[in-house]
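Repro:
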Amino acid sequence: MKKILFTLLLAILCLSALLCFSACGDDGNGLAFTLSEDGKSYALSGIGSCTDKDIVIPSEYDGKPVTSIADYALSNSGISSVVVPDTVTYIGNGAFAGCSRLKSINIPDSVTYIGYSAFQYCLSLESINIPDSVTYIGSSAFYECQNLSNASVGKNVQYIGPSTFFNCPNLTYNEYGNCYYLGSEANKYLILISAKSTDITSASIPSSTKFIGRCAFANCSKLTSVAIPESVIFIDYQAFNGCNMLSDINIPDGVKYIGAEAFRGCTNAIETEGDVSYVDKWVIGCKKNATSVTLRNDTVGIAGGAFYECQILNTVVIPDSVKTIGYMAFSFSGISYITIPDTVTLINSSAFTGCLHLQSISFEKPDGWFATHTPIATSGKSVDFTNATNNVEILTNNSASGDYFKHN
């Protein structure tokens, strides 16, 4: 009888140990991990069985480094703090989105990528330090972080998506002239967040500013002049919306992205030729009743949403001066055929989404294109654009984070 009881007790202990191992993992504190395709590293992929509120992500799991935090890995969880190891290089889309109790997290200087909506609706987050190693910050990364009071953004960031710090009412900003900025000690004026007042009449932007944020000058109806420096590469959604007194806007050659409605209502700055509206050398809009348009020969870019929902538009002729086709530029339009000239080097995500009548997208030189999750990439997955019919399937089905680029 004793032998039987001993055997049963031993079995129970072994089962308990097995369950504990399954729950706690190998130094993972119950967190869930996924092995990479090449089998060399792990990604934190979920909260797993972990009940801790203060999370310490291990630098290794099962003998391999933890190099990324997967898309939506800890989203909507009840965590309060996170320690990220210096093995992590990638923080995925929505990784911490909706973590309304998250107060603190470190971003080590190993991280290069912060995905879109990574910290969106982290309502309790108090401060964030984005190191110089980060080159990409996706759209809405810190959207609605309403308790965020301090944010430092490293000097080497090359892309900050739309609405990254939008509606963060408690942020402390750097000041220059009559505008508020975010940056770091190395560059305090990296991102122009907003004008100090909608009553300003002019604005002087520092030569170190790269990004003009969402609604930065929205409804500055008395603004008559602004000099955009050559350093600027990004002008966000509705940046100058309602600046009806603004005229003679010069957009620098280095600008790679202009968001939808960036110059909406800038009646003195907008030039209309035929059915197409321009600001400087960028197409910003088109009349909804247009059926066929030929863009001006000096056009260098097509802004986000420029032809959005032009449902009876059938053809657009793009000159060989255009370099950029913006986010949702032709989305839900009626175009049937389009040719992409060799000068185009960037097609932003969703440029042709919802184009139900599109039958052919021809590339003058289809070689050398790559698909990527970021418009600043220098490498990516090679894309074959030789077949005009197949191109329609590729470019109308691309995800919200899919961009296409080619090297000059």
